[in-house]
Amino acid sequence: MKRQVLATLSTAALLATAAGCSSGGPSSAPTGVDAKNVTGTVTVWLMNDAQKSWPELVQQVNDEFAQKYPKVQIKLSYHEWQNKVSELDTAIAAGQAPDVVELGNTETLKYIVNGSLMSLQRGSFDHSDNWIKGLSDTCTYNQTLYCVPYYAGARIGLYNSKMFQDATGSADLPQNEDDLLTALDKVQAKYKGSAGYSSLYLPGPYWYAAMSYVTAYGGSIAKFDSAGTWHGTLHDAKSQQGLQHFVDLVKKYNKSGDYKVNEADQAKVLGHEKAGLIYANGWEQSVATAPITGTPALQDSLRIAAMPGPNGKPLPSFIGGSDLAVTAKSQNSEAAADWVRMFTSSKSEQVLADKDTLPNNLVQLAPLKDKPATSAAANAVQDAWFTPLAPGWGAIEKQNVLVDMLNAVFAGKSVEEATKEADARIDQLINNPG
User: Fold this and answer.
1) 227 SS3 class
2) Structure pTM?
3) 299-313: burial string, b at 16+ Cβ within 10 Å, e else
4) Where are the chain's structural domains?
């Protein structure tokens, strides 16, 4: 896969940048110290997903840790995605970084390059030979591991089967894009009397979706060249073709009246029956069927399926997910790494799998490929795309380069002009560590 090649090349690109600072601290190799005599604290930062979705797993691991390290106190806090990076940067600068931190897989490279994460022994973690590559690659630099895959995610089609049944005579989502567009036209006509109804609700700034269409046409955000640098490739013909396809879909089917609204509340739009289909994470189904954010009565109507893409193939999905890392200046690094081992063990990953969350490895992922609730996402993982594994990617995402490009297009700028401007900004940022 192209994504795998880029991952290898990006390692070479980072060698000069991170030489001398990549380890950031001692290895987490067990020292043979009796765990029952270890004292101190282990501070853990998890995202609030764990608190909301699998609190019993957190309790299970903390209980297991307490049995092994009875004199070590766990200080656990939960964080919001929109604030975590700034909070972590502030803590690191102040010398108050947590011992263990959850990182989104697009966030890891920045902290690896700037020396903020400790190296880990890959073989000491369960299923390390079978980790999902899209997660494992984001934890690995110069053949050294700096974090441990936690769970994966892939976007799929989440749709109201009753609406499709009523409009087309079939409750199944078509798996060919031409057939899907025909069905969407019928659904749109059926519900045209509902103000703001979108048979396909595809938000304009939804760059994960836009780049899925770019990938489907053989394009990319950026590439690593023979001169040893990354450069933006959104203005390339194939990338422009995919982006134009996305723009055309948004303009035809998004009837919300505002192309600047992002995808944050798309599950609510579906849940309030103002959409027939969204391109979503699997967990968004629960948002669409919850009180207030959605409609509980839709529980039996909402279904998950692979999202059809161009050229008769499923739409390539972005592989999302989380990793767990031990920070470089942890004062209790061995115990911290042990907590990560417990939290990502086969036993722990099975808790996630049982909740229809994609585990970090292919062995425990396999049964989910045949399970209706998870098959679309589980089967998408191995052919998924990922953001460039380049030192400046974090800055590109933070500065909303792709979002600004999409907003410019929907404000009237041509795809050709907007992609050239985006590539110019990418070229300024992508080779520079944050």
Assistant:
1) coil
2) 0.81
3) eebbbbbbbbbeeee
4) 2-153+319-383, 154-317+392-429
